[in-house]
Amino acid sequence: MISLIFVLISTALGLNLNNFVVKNVNLNDIAVTYETYNSNKFKVYKPTTVYDEKELENIVFYTGGNSIFPSNIYSNFLKTLASYNYKVYAADSNSDINENLYDNLNNNIFILGHSSGCMTALFDSNKYKHIEKAILMDPVKSTELLNKFNLFNKEDIKIKHLKNILLLNAKKSYKWSFFPRLKVPFIPGFSLKENEIYKLNNNINVEKIEAGNFGHCDILDNLYSDFMHNSLSKGSDNREELYLLKYMNWLSLCIDNFIKDNSSLEINILEEENSVIKKIDALFAP
């Protein structure tokens, strides 16, 4: 229900982040370290302002390229997400290696994937009954694409234990344009859609949120997202770093509310509709 209200209102408003206020984030308050399990190192993003790390819930993040891409190209987003009091781990592309991480984390684990990394995240989630929530950002069925060209044979997509999935889609990645020239969307017919998830598991709850003015790669740090925007994947027309940081903060807010089953997102959006929220000139500390 929260997500439905969010979609309707944000669509009407065009998701104008210049007037959208979320929590203040100081990226300098986020530590980037490593934790080693059975000789396997995992990069972790965590807030330095929390006294007891046991209070933090865990998010395991799967990057694009079937989790082969390095997490440092998502650095600003992962730091912003960690500021909501999470330890965010960068998953490996090898599921056997990831087992060493999952076996050492407590039961408060949520999985988050971007692009084709969503498939790796789903495969890993099938091994653990206590992982019940997943966030899939522009999920791409890379297994179907690779198998189509006989690049390698990977198991079919399955969803065994998850109970709740949040789809976060950057809508520009799905749009066709025919005028003044043809533009093919970055995510073609291999995107994992809501109705397909229900076919995989009809007992699952799926929520969907769309960001109308953003593209698939706007989640990346500026150097990489600007390159993609100017070449393969059209993103936000506003390329200012602060504006894209606000988008990452908005994504983090959506994820945090989904994990916590929180109604505050609905309240914030309704307040924005009534122009109650004041504009913040400097959302992020220097």
What would your notes on this structure say?
The structure is a single chain. The chain has helices at residues 2-13, 64-67, 75-82, 95-102, 117-125, 142-148, 194-200, 222-229, 241-260, 264-273; strands at residues 30-37, 40-47, 57-62, 86-90, 109-114, 133-137, 164-170, 205-211. It is of the alpha/beta class. The protein has one domain: Rossmann fold, CATH 3.40.50.1820.
Portion of residues in helices? 25-40%
Low-pLDDT windows of residues: 1-15, 18-22, 145-153, 266-286
What's the SSE pattern? HEEEHHEHEHEHEHEHHH
Number of helices: 10
Tally of distinct domains = 1
Outline type: globular
CATH fold-level name: Rossmann fold
